[in-house]
Amino acid sequence: MTIGMSNNNTLIVGSIGLDTIETISDRKESILGGSATYATIAAGKSSDVHLVGIIGDDFPPSGMKIFKEATVDLSNLEQKKGKTFSWGGRYAKDWDNRQTLFTELGVFKEFDPVLKQQNKEVPIIFLANIHPVLQLSVLDQCTKRKFVIIDTMNLWIDTEREKLKEVISSCDVLLINEFEAEQFTRRKNHDDQGTVLQALGPQNIIVKCGSKGAKLYAGHQLDTIGVFPIKNVIDPTGAGDAFGGGIAASLANGETMIESIINGSALASLTIEGFGIDTVYNASVDEIEKRKEHLRTTLNS
Ligand code: AMP
């Protein structure tokens, strides 16, 4: 079944930040990060990305160079006087526990995008994790939207439940991790979670289960996709965003939902193999294809 569009353009909306990441063996300060950044780099491997975001006047030229390479349209990348959004995270040994050390919104406080005409017309939209009110405001401006993918986080489930419900009702693909799915639906059983979320509107619910892979609830069908095995995880930051960007790009290329998840998973596996954007940014088409081949063998196995 082909459900994506064929014109290959994706609109990516989310945070652009400077991250400080601490793992048990290393620490990196002020490296390029943010949900839209990871999604853009992943989607830019196989689609024409229109990036919507905000940066401060401290944003490094090296970051701008990366965006110029990974996108076709930066007309909605706003630069304002002030500090770029910054976030610090610390990982425990098992990677599952991530502690937020700080979140400094900077110019992100003023983020209220007004889309340029060409960006309003992009049919495939990935709303990476940002405040649901902002997600709704962008969606309202997208006059030719054909396929909307959204991601969220536990914070919005706690604090903006009703607005988040509105966003979920307006999307075609919901990305949610297994903990958030339980938190939102107040159900423990995975299939019940899928049913509750589908009842809100989206035809496709993708539950991200970390190292166990992902589940796709579409209609009455449940499919499972495994992971590409990684020997040495370096930094899991942004894996979910790269996953979403990869899904958006494949849908823009007219691929099926399953193939899109496989592309997203391949890009997520590359993201966690290096600090920040490094490995996914430098990944070759051949390496991505090799990982997709492996991931195809994990379908429903
Ligand atoms: P993930 O690992 O997929 O949760 O995404 C990590 C990225 O999200 C980091 O690069 C952060 O800069 C960014 N981030 C962290 N907190 C927020 C927030 N409250 N809103 C938007 N982006 C955030």
Topology:
Elements: E1 9-13, E2 17-22, E3 27-33, H1 35-43, E4 48-56, H2 61-70, E5 73-80, E6 85-91, E7 98-104, H3 117-120, E8 124-127, H4 132-141, E9 147-151, H5 154-159, H6 161-169, E10 173-177, H7 178-185, H8 190-199, E11 204-208, E12 214-218, E13 221-225, H9 239-252, H10 257-271, H11 278-282, H12 285-296
Helix pairs in contact: 1-9, 4-6, 7-8, 9-10, 10-12
The structure holds adenosine monophosphate.
Adenosine monophosphate binds at residues 15, 17, 19, 33-35, 87, 103, 129-130, 237-241.
Q: What Rg do the Cα atoms give?
A: 18 Å
Look up the CATH topology.
UDP-N-acetylmuramoyl-L-alanine:D-glutamate ligase
Strand fraction equals 25-35%
Structural class: alpha/beta
Query: Mean pLDDT, nearest integer?
Result: 95
Which oligomerization state do the chains in this entry correspond to?
Answer: single chain
CATH architecture: 3-Layer(aba) Sandwich
Distance between the termini: 21 Å
Number of strands: 13
The helix tally amounts to 12
**Order of helices and strands, N to C?**
EEEHEHEEEHEHEHHEHHEEEHHHH
CATH superfamily: Ribokinase
- Uncertain parts: 1-6
Present as ligands are:
adenosine monophosphate
Main pleated sheet:
9 strands, mixed
Strand arrangement in the largest pleated sheet: 5-4-1-8-9-10-11-12-13
Could you describe the 3D structure shown?
It is built from 12 helices and 13 strands. Residues 1-6 have low confidence and may be disordered. By secondary structure, the chain is of the alpha/beta class. The strands form 2 sheets. It has a 9-stranded mixed β-sheet with strand order 5-4-1-8-9-10-11-12-13, with helices on both faces. Strands 3-2-6-7 form a 4-stranded mixed β-sheet. It starts with 8 loop residues before the first strand and ends in a 5-residue tail after the last helix. It is globular, with a radius of gyration of 18 Å. The chain has a single domain (9-296), classed as UDP-N-acetylmuramoyl-L-alanine:D-glutamate ligase (3-Layer(aba) Sandwich), CATH 3.40.1190. Bound molecules: adenosine monophosphate.
